[in-house]
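Researcher: Good morning. I'm working through a list of sequences from a screen, and I'd like to move beyond sequence-only analysis. For each chain I'm collecting a predicted structure so we can compare shapes side by side. This is the next one on the list. No need for commentary yet; just the structure.
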Amino acid sequence: MNDHIASPSLQPVRGAARCATTALALAAAAWGLRGAWQIRLAMSGMPASGPPDQGDGRHRPLTSLENAYHFVSTLGDAATVLCALTFLIWLLRVQANARALSGKPPRYALPWLYAGWIVPIANLWLPRGIIVDIHRASAPDERLPRVVNWWWGLWLVGVLSGLGLNSTDSTDGVIARAYERVSPLLASDAAVVGAALTAIFVVRALTAAQQRHTGAPLK
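Model: Good morning. Structure tokens for this chain:
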């Protein structure tokens, strides 16, 4: 079936949903790979020469395993950017459709769809509020899917841990952490992977709710 919306006032969302869920799956795989490499670093142990960043601007040559982790980390960053872009495109479409379906303006204005993820304090509650607002406008008689709360809880762990989505460490700093104490890194990575995977079900749930109003069921 073609990606077609019966009503001219509604935007097609199936294609955007597919792109978003694919990107989320890629991001989950990339962060899982980061975790696997962190385990390898921890098992190999820190070289006798110490961490890569030796302080005072001095860096020792990287080992082959450390070089590989830099590559894996770059892949993870690229997957995260792709995931953010596709998710926002989908979010813009479902919010526009929610407005068309309800006949009411969204609770959160357009700039917050972008700024809500990065503004301190607001990013602890606003993105979930946007999702909840879209669902209520799209399917007012349906309960909010439980997966929304699972997704948001895992997202907060990944952000607030300071080791995952919101980490300010350099890649060499993460390598040093993996050598010294890998368990907090793995816990944070697991939360990010879980948030990406549960976000897939959030995208599908909201898309399906809107598709029920268009006569084109989600496959």
